[in-house]
């Protein structure tokens, strides 16, 4: 797949519209707190917080997402992003699910 993440951003939207999105390790919790980003506890997990999102794909998005889904966008903490984001692969099933949920072409 040859998707351009910098004009997509669909996987940074929380499809379920909740208060926390990306699961964090203990070290990442400390890193996010140093970056002054909210960390949310949910069912024993620690998650990077979300914010209100009025664009495509869901009602909340990761608090570090900047720009618009389907238009120029970025991760504000790209060098420091959590391991879950680093492991997420362009063109994967999850990628295509997120794009489809946002109404972006597959
Ligand atoms: S959904 Fe896929 S193409 Fe879009 S930003 Fe995420 S990894 Fe990139
Ligand atoms: S940390 Fe960055 S890459 Fe990960 S979901 Fe948030 S904005 Fe997207």
Characteristic terms for this protein:
binds iron/sulfur cluster; two-stranded antiparallel sheet; single chain; 106 residues; five-stranded antiparallel β-sheet; alpha+beta; globular
Outline of the structure:
The protein is an alpha+beta fold and 106 residues long.
Write the layout of secondary structure elements.
Layout: E1 13-14, E2 20-23, H1 26-34, E3 39-42, E4 45-52, E5 60-62, E6 65-67, E7 73-75, H2 83-87, H3 93-101
Antiparallel strand pairs: 1-5, 2-4, 3-4, 4-5, 6-7
One iron/sulfur cluster binds near residues 75 and 85.
Structure description:
With 106 residues, the chain is α+β, with helices and mostly antiparallel strands. The chain has one domain. The protein has 3 helices and 7 strands. It has helices at 26-34, 83-87, 93-101, and strands at 13-14, 20-23, 39-42, 45-52, 60-62, 65-67, 73-75. Strands 1, 2, 3, 4 and 5 form a 5-stranded antiparallel beta sheet that branches. The protein has a two-stranded antiparallel sheet with strand order 6-7. A hairpin with a 5-residue loop joins strand 6 and strand 7. The termini are close together. The model has no long low-confidence stretch (mean pLDDT 96). The chain binds iron/sulfur cluster (SF4) (2 copies). One iron/sulfur cluster (SF4) binds at residues 3, 5, 8-11, 88, 90, 95, 98-99.
């Amino acid at each position: 797949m040859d998707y351009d993440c910098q004009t997509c951003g669909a996987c940074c939207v929380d499809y379920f519209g909740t208060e926390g999105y990306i699961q964090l390790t203990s070290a990442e919790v400390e890193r996010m707190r140093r970056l002054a980003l909210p960390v949310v506890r949910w069912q024993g997990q620690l998650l990077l917080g979300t914010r209100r999102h009025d664009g495509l794909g869901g009602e909340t998005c990761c608090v570090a997402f900047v720009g618009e889904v389907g238009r120029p966008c970025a991760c504000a903490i790209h060098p420091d992003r959590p391991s879950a984001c680093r492991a997420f692969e362009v063109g994967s099933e999850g990628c295509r699910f997120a794009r489809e949920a946002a109404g972006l072409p597959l």
